[in-house]
């Protein structure tokens, strides 16, 4: 080993879960294969993992090297930094006034038809300045970091004009440059047909394809393109047209698929080779099989179905039986999932989706990383990857989703730097 110092040495780890294993997302039964190292340690240099494993082995690997800083995990659980692969981070306003409507039985689509839902947030986002959106999104990003999230996807989609979509994406860019949490930007101009295009969805699709997508690409403001394929929003045909145009421009593609009705969004994800398909509550087995065969990752959003009081949840167990890779996400947004708590999502993944704690951890680390094209850099604690890790105030993995409603995070390390200490921001 080169005679260089170790910048950070994390030791006295009670249980270390590295998520080491075969390359790629973990599919099917592999999701439950989560080896635990008792008495572990992690050595970090230049923001990268040098060694991770049993403490005696790691100490042997770094023997003779000076250590700049030591971090005593005090016998607690250490995992890779958590990854949130689906958020609508940047937006204006809030929609708590819709709670009463939901309690009276109004559905998501009914609220939308009355001018609420996404359209309400569009009005608030358009009226907000870039700095106002930045300040609001930063507060949420701080909360995500305190929850253990070190990498996060952020979608646009509340502007629905070129100017306002660019405003959202510019906020994401600024936050990615200034905040410890690494952001992956997704353009979602096809989140909804705006009010001024009501009854003219074909014209709006043309605007997205011919004006928005090329300008977002020219400015380098997004890596992925997403579409809300749903009844009353964008049809499968319109969704395919938009995503095909995005692929031609070099975007990676994602799709909000079969959230409320089985429109064939999952099948379309397979056909187009999307990196991920999101929601999937109403997706069929045929859709799952199409996704599996194309290597599409299923991103399940249990906080959304919980908040919408839906009786049906994503069939995550069936996805695993069919050999899919499943990821979990908060779907943080101002309406259907107004929460930044990835740990609540982990609990709901167990209680409502039937996943084991091991499958849940896989879903919020390595699989979530692959769902946003970061699997080669984050999601596991192996030599050569970014040094992103979480120390939980817990003795074992099962305790985190079991003891719900609180934040178990004590310390977060991002890129080798301590950014949360004693449960408080430290950057």
UniProtKB/TrEMBL annotation:
Known catalytic reactions: 4-imidazolone-5-propanoate + H2O = N-formimidoyl-L-glutamate
Pfam families registered for this protein in UniProt: Amidohydro_1 (PF01979)
Cofactor entry: Zn(2+); Fe(3+)
Compartment list: Cytoplasm
UniProtKB keywords: Cytoplasm, Histidine metabolism, Hydrolase, Iron, Metal-binding, Zinc
Binding site for Zn(2+): 86, 88, 256, 331
Similarity section: Belongs to the metallo-dependent hydrolases superfamily. HutI family.
Residues that, per the record, bind Fe(3+): 86, 88, 256, 331
Cellular component, GO annotation: cytoplasm
GO MF annotations in UniProt: imidazolonepropionase activity; iron ion binding; zinc ion binding
Name under which the protein is recorded: Imidazolonepropionase
Pathway involvement of the protein, from the record: Amino-acid degradation; L-histidine degradation into L-glutamate; N-formimidoyl-L-glutamate from L-histidine: step 3/3
Residues reported to bind N-formimidoyl-L-glutamate: 158, 333, 335
Start and end residues of each Amidohydrolase-related domain: 77-419
Function: Catalyzes the hydrolytic cleavage of the carbon-nitrogen bond in imidazolone-5-propanoate to yield N-formimidoyl-L-glutamate. It is the third step in the universal histidine degradation pathway.
Cofactor: binding details: Binds 1 zinc or iron ion per subunit.
Any one GO BP annotation for this protein: L-histidine catabolic process to glutamate and formamide
Predominant place of localization: cytoplasm
EC number: 3.5.2.7
Keyword Mitochondrion among UniProt keywords: no
Binding site for 4-imidazolone-5-propanoate: 95, 158, 191, 259, 336
């Amino acid at each position: 080993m080169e005679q260089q110092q170790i910048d950070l040495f994390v030791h006295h780890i009670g249980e270390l879960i590295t998520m080491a294993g075969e390359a790629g997302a973990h599919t099917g039964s592999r999701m439950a294969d989560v080896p635990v190292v008792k008495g572990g340690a992690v050595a970090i240099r230049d923001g990268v993992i040098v060694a991770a494993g049993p403490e005696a082995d790691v100490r042997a690997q770094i023997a003779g090297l000076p250590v700049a800083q030591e971090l005593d995990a005090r016998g607690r659980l250490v995992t890779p930094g958590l990854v949130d692969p689906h958020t609508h981070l940047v937006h204006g306003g809030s929609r708590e006034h819709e709670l009463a409507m939901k309690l009276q039985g109004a559905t998501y689509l009914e609220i939308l038809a009355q001018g609420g839902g996404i359209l309400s947030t569009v009005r608030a986002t358009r009226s907000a300045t870039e700095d106002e959106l930045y300040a609001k999104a930063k507060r949420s990003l701080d909360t995500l970091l305190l929850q253990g999230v070190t990498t996060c996807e952020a979608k646009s989609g509340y502007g629905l004009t070129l100017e306002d979509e660019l405003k959202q994406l510019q906020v994401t860019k600024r936050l990615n440059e200034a905040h410890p949490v690494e952001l992956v930007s997704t353009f979602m101009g096809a989140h909804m047909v705006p009010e001024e295009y009501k009854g003219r969805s074909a014209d709006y699709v043309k605007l997205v394809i011919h004006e928005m997508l090329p300008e977002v690409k020219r400015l380098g403001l997004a890596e992925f393109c997403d579409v809300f394929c749903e009844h009353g929003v964008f049809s499968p045909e319109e969704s395919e047209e938009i995503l095909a145009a995005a692929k031609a421009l070099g975007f990676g593609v994602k799709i909000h698929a079969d959230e409320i009705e089985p429109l064939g969004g999952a099948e379309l994800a397979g056909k187009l080779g999307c990196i991920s398909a999101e929601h999937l509550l109403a997706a069929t087995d045929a859709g799952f099989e199409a996704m599996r065969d194309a290597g599409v990752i299923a991103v399940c959003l249990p906080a959304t179905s919980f908040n919408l009081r839906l009786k049906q949840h994503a069939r995550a167990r069936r996805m695993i039986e069919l050999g899919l890779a499943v990821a979990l996400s908060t779907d943080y947004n101002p309406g259907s999932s107004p929460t930044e708590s990835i740990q609540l999502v982990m609990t709901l993944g167990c209680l409502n989706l039937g996943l084991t704690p091991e499958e849940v951890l896989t879903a919020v680390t390595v699989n979530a990383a692959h769902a946003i094209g970061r699997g080669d850099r984050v999601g596991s604690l192996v030599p050569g990857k970014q040094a992103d890790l979480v120390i939980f105030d817990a003795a074992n993995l099962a305790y985190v989703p079991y003891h719900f409603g609180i934040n178990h995070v004590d310390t977060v390390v991002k890129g080798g730097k301590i950014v949360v200490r004693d449960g408080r921001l430290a950057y």
